[in-house]
Amino acid sequence: MINHGHHVAYDPIVELNQFFEKSLDSEIKSLRSSYEVVVFIESNLERFNTMAPSPLRKFFPNIFKLLAWFPITFASEFIKFLPTFLSIGTSVEVLHYVLDLPCVTAALVLTLQESTVSSAVVQSLVSPNSKAMINFMLRKQSGTGETLDRICSLHQLLQIGRASCRERV
């Protein structure tokens, strides 16, 4: 699909967008699926750099969730991917996302492991303000908003989930 599309006048961008936006998000907790995605990105990194628009720049927040969920497993690969995520339009957003990666992990823990989260925490996430902050941290695409200016409020909200070992890595 990616390497042979130009021979048959096929543009894989539509399928890649579907994959990075929807399929990747539904398999975030699976180590095997996450590994396959990382290998796919790594083996096609050069090709992704030549695509316009680059799906890696567009969907880097969703791809970074793999690092947030499996930090030790994929750290070295993401160091290789980082330059691919950067452009003039995404550099500030990538910087903020990297700095906020522990918040992304906490938000994933709160949303993906609801059975282990206390009911008080779940109730605090019901407020519209909290939902908006969590949704911003777990966005799928880049360029969907400014950096979070209420980061202190988010930190206070996520303090409750500090017991998770995923956030201590």
Give structural notes.
The radius of gyration is 17 Å and the shape is globular. It contains 11 helices and no strands. The N and C termini lie far apart (36 Å). Helix 2 (31-43) packs parallel to helix 6, helix 5 runs antiparallel to helix 6 (71-85) and helix 5 (60-69) packs across helix 8 (101-112). The longest helix is centred in the middle third of the chain and has 15 residues, at 71-85. It has 169 residues and is mainly alpha-helical. Helices cover 63% and strands 0% of the residues.
The average pLDDT value, as a whole number, equals: 81
Helix and strand sequence? HHHHHHHHHHH
Specify the overall morphology. globular
Helix/sheet category:
mainly alpha
Largest sheet: none
Strand content: under 5%
Helix share of residues? 55-70%
Q: Distance N terminus to C terminus? A: 36 Å
> What is the count of β-strands?
0
Regions with little confidence, pLDDT below 50 for 5+ residues: none
The radius of gyration over CA amounts to: 17 Å
Q: Please report the number of helical segments.
A: 11
